[in-house]
Amino acid sequence: MTHAASTPSNSDAPQHFPVVVVGAGPAGLTVGNILRAASVDCLVLETETREFIEQRPRAGVIEEWAVRGLEKRGLARNLLDRAELHTACEFRFDGERYRFHYGEMTGSHHFVYPQPLLVTDLVREYADVRGGEIRFGVRDVEVHDIDTDRPSVSYTCPETGEQRVVHGDFVAGCDGARGVTRASLPPERVRVARHDYGVGWLALLAEAPPSADCVLFGCHENGFAGQMPRSPEVTRYYLQCPPGDDPENWPHERVWAELQQRLGAAGVPPLTEGRLIEKRVLDMHDYVVEPMVHGRLHLAGDAAHLVAPIAAKGMNLALHDAFLLGDALVAHLTMGDDSGLAGYAEACLRRVWDYQEFSQWLSEVYHGTAAGDPFRAGTTLARLRRLFTSPAAAAAFAERYLGTATRY
Asked: Which residues form a coiled coil (predicted)?
């Protein structure tokens, strides 16, 4: 892979778009939709097929401010019609259940809308309604000349096998944690702040209805367990496990036995079990890439920062970046206003670091009781009890859980 070097010569005559977006996830498609709404031409490049990105299982919890941002930009019609609203979560520890009514406390709520449905909405709006150009299945993507006023992106066309080059005024790097945009930068220009939690989560999708009407957090001496409703027929579960564990170590019977134990509480029926249709191990870690802007390349979403699913913040951060970047590019390209681009990285990173800190705090709540350290277990239980005995502690948690504590 080249490091923002010169444009390759063995290509077709290059096209030009004001913005080239690399990656068709929530961040890239939101940026593209914002640009098209302002009649700014752009090109989205995606290595996967349209069918794949519309079915890829990912997050489902969207904070209310993020939904309002989508709604403001005409991108939330299906979401508002179909999403579930959640106003409470439930902690289970010491054999008891504790309902946390953050909706009553704050007047705010979460939306539960699986990411594949949001991506389907966004790609349809971008490509089919707003007339945006998108090329799926591209290979060998590389970025070039980002330190000039004429950056470019090269790729191999999946139909012809030919290398093509697209010039742009800006490149939006929205291609995720393993994408090429961040990887194309020389290491000496990037600082990656990384935190490893030292735990793994077995991520599961079960063909079973949720066993409660809200998110469940089980803080147990065997390890954390979580239930995140996705639909009336499918439920996301998590089980703490050793990092790097093999999913094959978790057959159906073991999975459900641990879920039943870790999420069990007095007076609640057993979980409704079902066939496991996904089973993979996630090693819990975070990173933040600084700077997020390199010449004419602007990183967004997981290309710039990864927050572990501990606090369900990843898609929300991607949307926050996309709102700021899309609006800033429109202001620059249509009005010559550079203030949004100049402040883009700083505004993004304030929310990123707030969410990273909350994820770190919440990790201790989830995992402290299983640390094998009686002192950590005791302080973790004290922290949990405080949520249900101190109005100040409850209000602080609700603000951070909902994302309303961070207003920019």
From this structure: none
